[in-house]
Specification:
CATH architecture: Alpha-Beta Complex
CATH class: Alpha Beta
Keywords: Nucleotidyltransferase, Transferase
InterPro entries: GalU_uridylyltTrfase_bac/arc, NTP_transferase_dom, Nucleotide-diphossugar_trans
Order of helices and strands: EEEHEHHHEHHEEHEEEEHHEEHH
EC number: 2.7.7.9
Helix content: 25-40%
Family: Belongs to the UDPGP type 2 family.
Organism: Thermocatellispora tengchongensis
CATH superfamily: Spore Coat Polysaccharide Biosynthesis Protein SpsA, Chain A
Strand content: 15-25%
Number of strands: 13
């Protein structure tokens, strides 16, 4: 493995307004919406920790205080559970605070994912870092982030996660121009285009919400004008890095992910995710799955 700086920090952008879930997200961050009984953002932090990243920076906004509260201790609640002898729930309540060292910085206004990443510059410094988007949950059995960190160790530069999507969905994603490498699941990224029309898409390999990013991205983002939607796009900065060599912050590689990804970015996919997680839970599935089958049979 080449001598590249190790990845030790994770950045989790969590400053979005969550308008697709209004009115539920008027006072509750979308990242705190539960997947069964655990907020979505906790799964994201757990994923970072399982990949060895114990330093996590949350990029939040002014309405996101409950995220900080969730990852903090709750002495009164803990005391009440301890007094009842409810050790199981006590452990569940303490778990978020014990996962990692959490830091927070506020994104003053929603100016795009690229700007949210730029807000991490002071904390990350001149080191590579992982960026995990809360809309995408990756199954804990599929160690995508760990693989991406390995690929960064081999090639340097940045690494993005790519997933094959149907042609009719390419306009919802950033899409990559790719070429193969000697590794079956690794490609060289030559170009990226944000949300192309179907006929303009260079492939159907779409960028999903996992990145391992070279610190050179900060200099690029500082000089990246607002793009699609008037926002600073991370895709534009990665496109610039894709054309560079390793001495200047490049190149960009992609890991082709064929595992289990759960989307929580809109209402329909969120509901699908909750059902899938519930059906996988050994404490719920024996009752939930037969009920779900019966319910669906009655709806036919």
């Amino acid at each position: 493995m080449a001598d590249f700086d190790p990845v030790t920090k994770a950045v989790v952008p969590a400053a979005g307004l969550g308008t697709r879930f209004l009115p539920a997200t008027k006072a509750t961050p979308k990242e705190m919406l539960p997947i069964v009984d655990k907020p979505a953002i906790q799964y994201v932090v757990e994923e970072a920790v399982s990949a060895g990243l114990l330093d996590v920076l949350m990029v939040t906004g002014k309405t996101k205080r409950s995220i900080e509260d969730h990852f903090d201790r709750a002495p009164e609640l803990e005391d009440a559970l301890q007094a009842k002898g409810d050790d199981e729930r006590l452990s569940q309540v303490r778990e978020p605070a014990d996962l990692a060292t959490l830091h927070y910085v506020r994104q003053g206004e929603p100016r795009g994912l690229g700007h949210a990443v730029l807000c991490a510059k002071q904390h990350v410094g001149g080191h590579p870092f992982a960026c995990l988007l809360g809309d995408d949950l990756i199954d804990a059995r599929d160690e995508l982030l760990k693989r991406m960190i390995e690929v960064r160790g081999m090639y340097g530069g940045s690494v993005i996660a790519l997933m094959e999507v149907p042609e009719e969905q390419v306009s919802l994603y950033g899409v990559a121009t790719i070429e193969p490498t000697s590794e079956a699941d690794v490609v060289r990224v030559r170009d990226l285009v944000e949300k192309p029309a179907k006929e303009d898409a260079p492939s159907n390999w779409a960028v999903i919400g996992r990145y391992v990013i070279d610190p050179a991205v900060f200099e690029v983002l500082e000089n990246t004008p607002p793009g699609r939607g008037g926002e600073i796009q991370l895709t534009d900065a990665l496109r610039e890095l894709a054309g560079r060599d390793s001495e200047h912050g490049g190149p960009v590689h992609g890991v082709l992910f064929r595992g289990r990804r759960y989307d929580t970015g809109n209402k329909l996919d969120y509901l699908r995710t909750v059902v899938q997680f519930a059906a996988d839970r050994p404490d719920l599935a024996p009752d939930f799955v037969p009920w779900l089958r019966e319910f669906l049979d009655e709806r036919r």
